[in-house]
């Protein structure tokens, strides 16, 4: 069976790891108690313990033994030998064994200077500290979640009151419109039109005023006050105009533009410091507020579930360690102590369970149309089990890819496709599309490796990226997409090569890469629920957010994906070449100069090279606007410097003069230093001068520190790969394209390598703040009254 220490490590909440009971340390105390209970006679013979740092202590102890034996006294000091490893305890609750294979307890003779009672006393002191630690953390989180629950109940009540007011007013307006329409038709020819117009104009003012009064009454019933009501405008009945705001996060372009416009208008015209600006509550804003409150309830329920798991796992750990103590000490001390533990707050309190039941009831009633099954799909989303079929398909497609690629290499050699006679035509036709798919597949492979490493190191990437656990991509899925994509691409390359070597028309055969490109674009936007539709649509949504920067609120997944695009500029350039090749009809005429020398094409190359850096810079600007953190402005400068360096290298490739080479060296050097500093210090959180790990950071997930130093050196080497652009090698077209593809692949590998440490640093930030649940900003903002 699985050892409990490993089971606990696998089940605990990673962000709360430091708040859990330190089971391993308590286990070491139990082992010391076990050693103190095994006295052994020591003769004059010198035992060979092996060389260790405790040799001086052994010498002193041996001299004491000699003196005691010479004086005719029996030595009573026990010899310390490591007899614990490999033994079975025999307890049905401890079938995992008494020791960890990877852990060894190195004892010395000093352990025998203490009696068994001393060790037990130290153990219980340590156990008391652990119980108090768990209790305090549980109380803090319980208080936090209870406060969230009270706030959400108040927000929900406000939402229900506002919906009721709007529904009542909508019914009254509908009845009034029907009545006024009938009245106007029956009196259209009468001479009392003027009197009717006056009465209708008076009535038009009253619904809005009445609606405001109803809303104010509903809000005041829930404790919402108004800012400086003495200086505000008043209604005809002398009541203050409504000042409550519904704070909807500006996540979409229309909401962003509306928020900025409203802010500027209030600053320049309305002077909100002198007059509290009111805001009319409409149906759309109420719907947005309802969606936000629903998400807040889901996060609250998730947090309560985590706290419940925290309580049960710690109780299980205390039970296990006390049973170990009973076995080692031959005493029954655990029962009385366990009774005290069960009376602790983290076990005896039922507030979390009651609040979970209340959340389930409220969510079912107000957000799931009283359908509990539907409510549980939101509150407890089920994770999909790993399928062996996915693993089988990964192996199958990997074998197909290797076989087809070998066949392609043999056919290319036999047909002489890479000779000078047919090299140019074939490379212009095949290289852009197939290398584009190869770079994309490599990136997917690196992402699969990232998912595997994040999972093995317990980095909660689903929480960081805010992915749904039931639809999030797993590492096997990423490998399946990668291998199936490359199998299809290499199969198309083989078919293209076979048909090209036959008597088929070249311009018809050259349509195969374009058909392959259209097929994958169609698969990406396919509305059918096949081939990871949630992941495909999430990808499209993130790309939309990136392209429309800075109008969308920037989430972690948005700027993470934008960073990936900065490493895929060659892929975007290949997509530009392929699009031009097929849209301009070059596959029919084989006139490749159209997509090389055209002015529009050359200018578009700059746009594509700048676009990823521009999008990332705009995201930094938006984050600075939202958070007012100047670090985002400094990060923006990094992408601006990279944009300038990319433009200089592109110009130098077309105008290889001495001046442009100097400009490339200067701009690329500044950009590289800027990027390296940000990689190591900001993104990875390394180079802490006072860290206990030299030039790293205090908290490291990987146990082997040398991996971090190797990663620093590797990232540095791959960051300076731009030096190749100023070293103009005199090589052929095939070798040039191969070198270009090799450098682009190195950048993709560097990005995949960077991804792991970037998310590791983000995860450690969450662990340091014990942040395991997302904080949702609530829509209704309470304000204090000045009057």
Q: Which overall shape is indicated by the principal axes computed on the Cα atoms?
A: globular
Secondary structure class reads mainly alpha
Overall mean pLDDT stands at: 79
* Low-confidence parts: 40-58, 64-114, 188-206, 225-237, 239-243, 263-279
Give the % helix: 55-70%
Number of helices: 27
- Largest sheet data: none
Protein described:
68% of the residues lie in helices and 0% in strands. It has 787 residues and is an all-alpha fold. The protein is globular, with a radius of gyration of 35 Å. Residues 40-58, 64-114, 188-206, 225-237, 239-243 and 263-279 have low confidence and may be disordered. The chain has 27 helices and no strands. It has helices at 4-11, 23-36, 55-70, 116-186, 193-221, 253-270, 283-329, 334-342, 345-348, 351-367, 372-379, 388-415, 423-456, 461-465, 475-501, 506-509, 511-524, 533-547, 556-566, 569-583, 586-589, 594-597, 599-627, 630-654, 658-683, 706-719, 733-768. The two termini are 68 Å apart. Helix 7 packs antiparallel against helix 8 and helix 7 packs antiparallel against helix 10 (351-367). Residues 71-104, 179-204 are annotated as: Disordered. It is found in: Endomembrane system. Residues 2-339 form the SPX domain. The chain crosses the membrane at residues 390-411, 431-454, 475-499, 511-532, 659-678, 706-727. It is a multi-pass membrane protein.
């Amino acid at each position: 069976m699985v050892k409990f220490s490993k089971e606990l490590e696998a089940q605990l909440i990673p962000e709360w790891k430091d708040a859990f009971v330190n089971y391993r340390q308590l286990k070491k105390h139990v082992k010391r108690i076990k050693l103190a209970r095994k006295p052994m006679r020591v003769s004059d013979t010198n035992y060979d313990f092996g060389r260790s740092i405790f040799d001086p202590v052994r010498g002193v102890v041996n001299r004491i033994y000699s003196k005691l034996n010479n004086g005719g006294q029996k030595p009573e000091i026990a010899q310390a030998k490591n007899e614990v490893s490999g033994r079975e305890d025999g307890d049905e609750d401890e079938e995992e064994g008494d020791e960890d294979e990877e852990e060894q307890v190195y004892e010395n003779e000093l352990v025998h200077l203490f009696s068994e009672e001393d060790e037990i006393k130290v153990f219980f002191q340590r156990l008391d500290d652990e119980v108090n630690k768990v209790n305090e953390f549980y109380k803090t989180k319980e208080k936090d979640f209870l406060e969230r629950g009270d706030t959400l109940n108040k927000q929900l009540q406000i939402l229900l009151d506002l919906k009721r007011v709007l529904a009542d007013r909508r019914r009254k307006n509908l009845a009034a419109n029907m009545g006024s329409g009938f009245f106007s038709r029956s009196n259209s020819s009468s001479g009392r039109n003027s009197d009717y117009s006056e009465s209708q104009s008076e009535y038009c003012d009253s619904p809005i005023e009445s609606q405001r009064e109803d809303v104010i009454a509903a809000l005041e019933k829930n404790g919402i006050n108004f800012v400086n009501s003495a200086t505000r405008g008043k209604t005809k009945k002398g009541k203050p105009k409504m000042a409550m705001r519904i704070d909807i996060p500006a996540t979409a372009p229309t909401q962003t533009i509306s928020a900025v416009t409203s802010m500027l208008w209030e600053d320049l015209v309305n002077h909100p410091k002198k007059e509290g600006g009111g805001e009319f509550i409409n149906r759309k804003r109420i719907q947005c507020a309802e969606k936000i409150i629903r998400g807040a309830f889901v996060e609250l329920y998730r947090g309560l579930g985590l706290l419940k798991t925290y309580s049960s796992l710690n109780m299980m750990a205390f039970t296990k360690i006390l049973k170990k103590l009973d076995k080692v000490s031959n005493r029954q001390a655990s029962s009385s102590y366990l009774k005290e533990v069960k009376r602790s707050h983290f076990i005896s309190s039922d507030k979390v369970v009651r609040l979970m039941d209340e959340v389930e009831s409220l969510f079912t009633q107000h957000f799931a149309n009283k359908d509990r099954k539907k409510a549980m799909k939101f509150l407890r989303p089920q994770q999909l089990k790993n399928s062996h079929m996915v693993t089988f398909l990964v192996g199958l497609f990997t074998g197909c890819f290797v076989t087809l690629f070998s066949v392609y290499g043999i056919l290319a050699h036999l047909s002489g496709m890479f000779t000078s006679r047919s090299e140019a035509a074939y490379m212009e036709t095949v290289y852009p599309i197939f290398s584009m798919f190869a770079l994309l597949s490599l990136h997917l492979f690196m992402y699969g490796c990232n998912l595997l490493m994040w999972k093995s190191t317990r980095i909660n990437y689903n929480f960081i990226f805010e992915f749904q656990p039931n639809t999030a991509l797993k590492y096997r899925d990423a490998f399946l997409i990668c291998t199936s994509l490359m199998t299809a691409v290499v199969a198309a390359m083989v078919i293209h090569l076979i048909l090209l070597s036959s008597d088929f028309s070249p311009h018809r055969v050259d349509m195969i890469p374009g058909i392959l490109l259209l097929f994958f674009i169609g698969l990406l936007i396919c509305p059918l629920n096949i081939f990871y539709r949630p992941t495909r649509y999430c990808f499209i949504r993130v790309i939309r957010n990136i392209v429309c920067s800075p109008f969308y609120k920037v989430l972690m997944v948005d700027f993470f994906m934008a960073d990936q695009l900065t490493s895929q500029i060659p892929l975007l350039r290949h997509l530009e070449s392929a699009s031009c090749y097929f849209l301009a009809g070059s596959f029919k005429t084989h006139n490749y100069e159209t997509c090389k020398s055209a002015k529009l094409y050359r200018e578009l190359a700059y746009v594509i090279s700048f676009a990823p850096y521009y999008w990332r810079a705009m995201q930094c600007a938006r984050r600075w606007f939202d958070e007012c953190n100047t670090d985002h402005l400094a990060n923006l400068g990094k992408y601006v410097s990279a944009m300038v360096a990319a433009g200089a290298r592109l110009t130098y490739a077309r105008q290889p003069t001495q001046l442009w080479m100097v400009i490339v060296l200067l701009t690329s050097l500044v950009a590289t230093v800027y990027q390296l500093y940000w990689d190591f210090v900001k993104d990875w959180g390394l180079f802490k001068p006072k860290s206990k790990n030299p030039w790293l950071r205090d908290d490291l997930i990987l146990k082997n520190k040398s991996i971090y130093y190797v990663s620093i050196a590797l990232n540095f080497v791959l960051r300076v790969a731009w030096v190749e652009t100023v070293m103009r090698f005199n090589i052929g077209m095939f070798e040039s394209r191969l070198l270009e593809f090799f450098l682009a692949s190195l950048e993709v590998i560097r990005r995949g390598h960077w991804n792991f440490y970037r998310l590791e640093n983000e995860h450690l930030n969450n662990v340091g703040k014990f942040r395991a649940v997302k904080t949702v900003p609530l829509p209704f903002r309470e304000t204090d009254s000045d009057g």
